[in-house]
Amino acid sequence: MSLAQAIIALIRGDLEAIEDPLNAAERGAADAADEPYEPSVGRAASMLANLPASIALQGAGLAVLRGDAGQLTASARQARAELEQGEWTLEFFTDWYLAEAEWLAGRLAEAEAALSFSIARWRAASHRAPAAAALGYHGLGLVQRDRGRLEAALATYREALAVAAQRDGDALQMAGVAQVGMAAVLYARGKLNAALERVTEGIPLCRQLVYTPRLAAGQAERVQISPVIVGLLNPVPAERARLALAQADVDAAARWAQASGLTATDELSYPREREYLVLARVLLAKQAPEQALGLLERLHAQAAAQARTGSVIEIRALQALARSAGGDQPGALAALAEALTLAALEGYLRVFVDEGPPMAALLRQLLAGRRQDRPAAAAAVPRDYLARLLEAFEQADLPVRLPVRSGGVVVAGLVEPLSPRELEVLRLLADGRSNQAIAAELVISLDTVKRHLSHLFSKLEVANRTQAVARARELGLLP
Known about the structure:
The protein is an all-alpha fold and 479 residues long. It has 4 domains: 1-125, Serine Threonine Protein Phosphatase 5, Tetratricopeptide repeat (Alpha Horseshoe); 129-226, Serine Threonine Protein Phosphatase 5, Tetratricopeptide repeat, CATH 1.25.40.10; 227-395, Serine Threonine Protein Phosphatase 5, Tetratricopeptide repeat; 420-474, Orthogonal Bundle (Arc Repressor Mutant, subunit A), CATH 1.10.10.10. It has helices spanning 2-12, 19-31, 51-66, 69-82, 88-104, 108-124, 130-146, 150-165, 172-188, 192-206, 212-215, 219-222, 227-233, 236-246, 250-260, 273-285, 289-305, 309-325, 329-344, 350-353, 357-368, 383-395, 420-430, 435-442, 446-460, 465-474. Helix 3 runs antiparallel to helix 4 (69-82), helix 9 (172-188) packs antiparallel against helix 10 and helix 18 runs antiparallel to helix 19 (329-344). Residues 211-225 have low confidence and may be disordered.
């Protein structure tokens, strides 16, 4: 009975109600050590099949709510030492807690490997509780997203959907986790309509999850859970502050920052990184770029050391804004170019668009300098990715493209539009005309022809006449 009370309190996230029944369960387990127990649902399915292991796992759950990665690891290892063959449910949660300890510590590569292993064992087991797997898929997808592995996360969520479909309706929670996770990836890539469809379908399914501290947005606000866990698993308070900033309500965001107790000089930890990134935005909004930059530099050092590419992209984007606000335009453009180069690999768009007009202005500066004196890293940003990014800004009513003279030609995949004269030169180029022949046809000087060709090659991002014609046909500029 005491252990059952502890489990219920853990599910509710009620720290005050966990310890007493957990201590009582430990005493009871010692008294009943010689009494055989066989759960009615079988050892594979039961959370109570092995009392010492179950008690250790509740201790692990308590460590999670306290944000104590060290105690979490110790309790999970204690549970593992108590496990007996065939106790699949207990074994799954043991593996899952060990993976979560790696996650709390910011060791995401290790956490991803551990969660993948845990899910593989779950799929191979004869008894497979879908609610347990929902936690596994949820955690794995989050870890992959933080590592900047959007395509891997998408594959994880697709697998979860496929597994849920095979369960004949008893895995709705898993399907909900998958739908909401897919929505987050689609949103990051700027596919807003598809993201809305997924999240609309997934949220009602997620509400059926029993273990609410992991997935229920408001739970951590109603119970006494460590701020570490609130930051990692419940982003709602910080995201409300970020929404306030988007609505130009700097005072509301500043009140959140003050209530959270965060400062730019705190000792940083990965679980609260999301909150510190919002704090950096608050500092920028309050015209304190130097404080924001100091915080962001420390966040970047930590994220880079732990190979958290998703974090690095967002931090670099904010560093670009902070440097720009502080008057360091070369540094701002270099940071933005690095962020774009990393983001292009997985198709991130909204991480830039969501920063609004300041980011649009900075991106406009980067594009304006692509012809000359541009940061070296900017050359590595694929042109097709830049075109998609510009389109995403335009859809958000944040135009970035350079001004176009009347009659200019803008096409998808072309970062800078072609002027009418450049298009004439391009067509003559495709006809095989020499520079002299083009000059004579258009009644312009040879130097002017060479200048038009230089601009064409730059805008098409090619090196010679043959490549220019091929690229123009690829874009539909030529038949």
